């Protein structure tokens, strides 16, 4: 029996007319069409033949976009929506602004930067911008907000992607984003249940662990999730993250080897998320290409088991044909019961109806209007929000030397040390090179700037110590070590030979460190006495940093995390 009444409740609140559409659609679907709805793929290509195959051959339920030029993303979405029978969910990682999908989109700032205002103001504005710019090009589903909590500064994947280490601030920011984004007609997906940010490992590379006790989890992540669910969050993204305390509580006697990540743990999805937290919306897995899902269970079994365990939608595939067959086999052998399949598709269709996609399809408004999109994406209203965020969030973490405001006549000769992350083995880009941008910005203010180059040869063959003291008035470290997936650490790897660019002269030459990404570099440069977090390398932040360095504007940001990394020497 299919329980259509659940669509009358939060977060769907469907009318009788909308429920009738869901009912007639679901009851008219073949098993293959239902299986297709379970899949949310990714548009790696904008080739029409590939996109048409997604919706005509596999009859997928949704597709995620990666950042593309505005015109290209509009054409991509148009191609898919024009060729699908049931309207598609179109998603993107709207974690910082419209640029999560659209190259020309506004970037308000990463979550941590918005939280550095000390309130949820900019989290709400980010949700508004994401919803407005995203829907302008035809998207309807944000894989955001990230409501993980910073419990471990060594975590390599979260950092600036999360709001704060303050549970209440995370809760307020998550609620603000959720409300503002969904008011624009875009569903959110609060993530990554049961909570990243505790383990120091990346679920892209290993099945990670949220190791909090049940009581600790309830008081932190539990409160954040309850608040966002109460605010109307329409979907939850479940991570490849274990929560052993709750698995043991809800499944007494479970063996350690049987503790699974939430995507494969019915006790966490049904017992904790559905029953205890009362979430009635749609549940999607995190990317199923991650090692965190692939390691603990055979893929042939894991693919259908995600749905059997309680997830409604399956994000990405390793091999589309193979994973589709794994899913179909799971339906045929009873791993996914007919009741469970219908329930999953019911919630997928319910979400589409709640977003009025079926009505937009009938009205012809499901297809983006490129000209209208150009008026909205990157508009002045949104850019002004970005500038305001930059001004109010750049954070002066340490100012032990009283260097700021910098006076050109006192600190004219500057040696610039760039600290940049490189491309990783999978080809994920490293941090943009900040060197030329910062050099030019300083020179425009009248500073004379040299860029550090590591000497060749062994220790002792570099310049004399006194030569450095005679030559420079200021040493400036500028970091852009970005958070990205598929890396095990985000730590400074000092240059060879023998840490040639270490802050060896900071006791004699005034030294400043500015990070335009990871906020935790004091762990590797603890005695640098002037430290600034700027959260993301972009023009509005560079301009704001320069204004504040030179005293034209005050530092207004409030550290949303412990940038001192819990160490006493980082405060010296």
What is the overall pLDDT average?
96
Report the helical percentage: 25-40%
Q: Give, in spatial order, the strands making up the sheet with the most strands.
A: 9-7-5-4-3-2-1-10
CATH architecture of the largest domain: Alpha-Beta Barrel
CATH superfamily of the largest domain: Glycoside hydrolase, family 3, N-terminal domain
At the first level of CATH, what is the class of the largest domain? Alpha Beta
Q: Can you tell me the CATH topology of the largest domain?
A: TIM Barrel
Biggest β-sheet, characterized? 8 strands, parallel
* Overall form: globular
What's the total number of strands? 16
User: Count of DSSP helices?
Assistant: 20
Give me some keywords for this one.
572 residues; alpha/beta; TIM Barrel; Rossmann fold; 2 domains; eight-stranded parallel sheet; 12% strand
Give the helices and strands, then pairings:
Elements: H1 16-27, H2 31-37, E1 39-43, H3 48-56, E2 62-65, H4 70-82, E3 89-92, H5 111-115, H6 121-136, E4 141-142, H7 167-182, E5 187-193, E6 208-209, H8 214-230, E7 235-238, E8 241-242, H9 244-250, H10 266-276, E9 282-285, H11 291-294, H12 299-308, E10 314-315, H13 320-332, H14 338-354, H15 357-363, H16 370-376, H17 380-393, E11 395-399, E12 413-420, H18 435-444, E13 448-451, H19 465-471, E14 474-480, E15 511-515, E16 530-533, H20 539-549
Parallel strand pairs: 1-2, 1-10, 2-3, 3-4, 4-5, 5-7, 6-8, 7-9, 12-13, 12-14, 14-15, 15-16
Antiparallel strand pairs: 11-16
